[in-house]
Design a protein that fits this description.
This protein is α+β, with helices and mostly antiparallel strands. Helices cover about 45% and strands about 15% of the residues. It has 4 helices and 3 strands.
């Protein structure tokens, strides 16, 4: 796929975000902001062979989430891949109250396991949301 400019990327992302914010009812419960950033400004991946696509900074008491999206990776993604990955990040926002409540009760030694399990559950919910009851992609 041809690399998109920031303006083209923002134009593609806006309707995706709007659709999922409405569908997940996050419009009424969270303030979500998305920023397209240089990949170097994102945290490093746990796996040395991976690059982080997005990160989220939460302000829990105010139900604010700021999603930082890696410009270099997102600019070359298909619309379907952007849809999938943006929904994945919004599922993290949807699940944040539960994760935040549980986090302090999880022993530090078990937190990596919890993070992996949380990521797996987020992937599952993302995939379920992307398919409709007829087994067709929900776009």
């Amino acid at each position: 796929m041809k690399k998109r400019t920031d303006k083209q990327l923002a134009k593609c992302i806006a309707p995706i975000l709007e659709r999922w914010l409405k569908r997940l009812d996050l419009y009424n419960t969270w303030f979500v902001r998305l920023e397209i950033v240089c990949g170097a400004s994102l945290p490093e991946a746990d796996d040395a062979d991976s690059t982080v696509l997005a990160s989220i900074d939460f302000s829990d008491p105010y139900k604010r989430a700021e999603i930082s999206l890696n410009r270099e990776l997102a600019a070359t993604m298909s619309d379907a891949d952007l849809d999938h990955n943006l929904l994945h990040e919004l599922v993290h926002v949807l699940m944040r109250p539960m994760v935040h409540a549980a986090w302090e009760h999880i022993p530090k030694a078990d937190r990596k396991h919890f993070q992996r399990a949380h990521e797996s559950v987020t992937d599952t919910f993302t995939n379920l949301l992307l398919w409709d009851s007829k087994g067709e992609r929900n776009r």
